[in-house]
Amino acid sequence: MAYRETEKMRQRKAQARQRIVDCTFQCVMDGGFRSARITRIADLAGVATGTIYRHFESREELFAGVFRLATQREVDKVAEALATEGNAATRLETALRQFAERALRGPMMAWSLIAEPVDPKVEEERLKYRKAYASLFETAIREGITEGCLPDQDARQSSTCLVGAIAESLVGPLSPTQAGQNPAATPDNTDALVNAIIRFCMQGLTGTRR
Question: pTM value?
Answer without folding.
Answer: 0.84
